[in-house]
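Researcher: We're teaching a course module on how sequence relates to structure. For the next exercise, students receive a sequence and then see the predicted structure as tokens, so they can try to spot secondary structure elements on their own. Here is the exercise chain.
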Amino acid sequence: MPRAPSSHHDPTAGFTLVEVLVALAVVSISLVAIGSVMATTSRGVRSLEQHVSLMESARTIATNLPPRAQLTAGSLTGDIYGNRWRIDVAPFVGGGIPVVPDSQWLPQTIRVRVQSPTGAVLGLETVRLQRRRTE
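Model: And here is the predicted structure for the students to work with:
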């Protein structure tokens, strides 16, 4: 048989002040943890977007390098997609590779440096063979 509701209040019913404070502390710690994860994720996304932009600029620059015959020692600079770039071309030295005097090829070091407006820098270095001019 069901019990009829009593008209008097149970003094132990409800939450104590300590229980409420503990619950609020748990909720606030959870919110801080979620906020921290969100901030880290957004920083990572911005960093990734910046890196992709720099890589896209570097690929475009490398794709549009002048032909070997026109790419001489020195520097080229410019601006693409809002990123500043610089290409340095120099004779290849180092790596313990001896220069072969009678070779028809001269190795050149090509350094591509791309800098975003925020200051992030991407640097690439490669070696390109230049046909030796016969005189």
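Model: If you want an answer key for the exercise: The chain is about 35% helix and 30% strand. The first helix runs from residue 17 to 63.
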